[in-house]
Amino acid sequence: MDTDLVTRAQGGDQEAFADLVYAVADRFLAVSHRILSDIGLAEDATQQALLSIWQDLPQLRDPARFEAWSYRLLVRACYAEGRKSRRWAPHMRLLSGDDPIVVDGTGAVVDRDQLERAFRRLSLNHRTVVVLHHYLDLPLERVADIVGAPRGTVGSRLHYATRQLRSALIADARPTAREVAR
Amino acid sequence: MTDFHASDRDVNRVIQAWLDEDRHEDASRLAGAVLDQVEALPQRRATWWRVRRTPTMNRFLSVGAAAAVIVLVLLAGSRLFGSPANIGGPGVEPTATQEATQTPEPSAAEPSVDPEGLLPEGPHLLTDGRLPITVTIPAPDWYGEPGGAILAKNDSAGTGSAAMIVFFSDLYVYGDPCQWSTTRPDTPATTVDEVMTALSAQASRDASEPVDVTLDGYAGKAITLHVPDDADFSACDRATFGSWGLPGADQTPFRYHQDPGQIDEVWVLDVDGELAIIDWAYYEGTPQAVVDELREIVESITFETP
């Protein structure tokens, strides 16, 4: 991010802030959509995060840290939106790690609905870590910085989420009794 | 398709592929809506002092370089600046989890505070729970955090605002507020004279001559600091113009300034062998009445020593 742009926006330059908004809005919406799994909530979270950025920019002392700082605000907004909804179902069944899952040779998702369902069953904390790490490709140290948790905690969350997703994929990939009977 | 025994790497590949799928988000409408609101939405100004939550210690037991800072904050601009948990500063940025705040024990000297932080006129207790300081609020519209952490006035006025802080600590006075990261002294100033000498000698600013002051029977000195009107913060270390830091691992400025032209009246007192720092700050544009009120608050300070 252009630190000069950030500095100008910190000083109340609305044109500079507009440039910032257009530079980050698409990515923000994509991230929040993936964390929240709901485009309506994601739009609300993104909007709130962008407004918070404007309001709190003077408190950012190091413009070079804008990216991590702004993602913190986005994550905070996602948490706030997430708390408003009651769509989370944190409990799911764990299966053996030896069961096969099915993907095609290129790694594309065979059944995105399976993954979508499994992802929705994760807690917001776990989703956030998964999205920041796998979608934004951020190392765990930076994820920890953004979510405000120790590196070890973030690693544990990612491990747990991966295990849960894997188990869910396996469970969803198994034929139901009715399918077997056919 | 292939069946395989999934390793974490396989699952990661599946997750990444799924996350990377185009979900056809379009934020242009959102961006427009945000920018429409910005015009009427004031920015929150940075706090005037970095807030620390180091463990406090009995001030009468020990004073030293590692002495815990007893933070008693009086500052203008509370509504604008937000609560201490949200106060920013060098290295102080928002976290996704809310930090717990200390809540001092209520006291008879502490008047009730309205939900928005408006303080009633009269006596007000500033304390970290063990070291009470009483001030008198002389006029309406001063804001403060329940528990005495913050006082504020004219926070939405930008360069019309005023602020004040009181705390006990030795100070690392930077040789140059603009180049603070490389001009931090090896040892802190531990006496009134050492603090005054260091502040007087600071580069990048023109400090006044220190003068003697007495407050609540305690002797000390006062100095007026001024951030040059043409100061370019962006050319300073981490874009921060900082006057001093505190003992501890965090070497970023505790007192960092918000704008060129800012004026700080710094009183340093020897209170039973400890340095009491009173920093009250304002701008050329701050109404004289507000500055007068601030001075009244400062002069009303009483240290509740045992």
Quaternary structure type: heterodimer
Our count of domains of chain A comes out at 2
CATH top level class name of the largest domain in chain A: Mainly Alpha
Residues in helices of chain B, as a percent range: 10-25%
Radius of gyration of chain B (CA) equals: 23 Å
Give the total of beta strands of chain B.
15
Can you count the helices of chain A?
9
Mean pLDDT of chain B: 73
Number of domains of chain B: 1
The succession of helices and strands of chain A, N to C, reads HHHHEHHHHH
Biggest beta-sheet profile of chain A = none
Q: Please give the radius of gyration of chain A in angstroms.
A: 19 Å
Describe the strand arrangement of the main beta sheet of chain B, using strand numbers: 2-7-14-13-10-9
Envelope shape of chain A: elongated
| Tertiary shape of chain B | globular
Textual characterization of the structure:
The complex is a heterodimer of chains A (182) and B (306). Chain A has helices spanning 3-10, 14-36, 39-56, 66-84, 112-120, 124-135, 140-147, 151-173, 177-181, and one strand spanning 100-103. With 182 residues, chain A is mainly alpha-helical. Chain A folds into 2 domains: 1-86, Rna Polymerase Sigma Factor, Chain: A; 88-182, Winged helix-like DNA-binding domain superfamily/Winged helix DNA-binding domain (Arc Repressor Mutant, subunit A). The longest helix of chain A is centred in the first third of the chain and has 23 residues, at 14-36. Chain B has 306 residues and is of the alpha+beta class. Chain B has one domain (70-92, 102-303). The longest helix of chain B is centred in the N-terminal third of the chain and has 13 residues, at 8-20. The chains are: A mainly alpha (182), B alpha+beta (306). At the A-B interface, helix 2, helix 3, helix 4, strand 1 and helix 5 of A face strand 1, helix 1 and helix 2 of B.
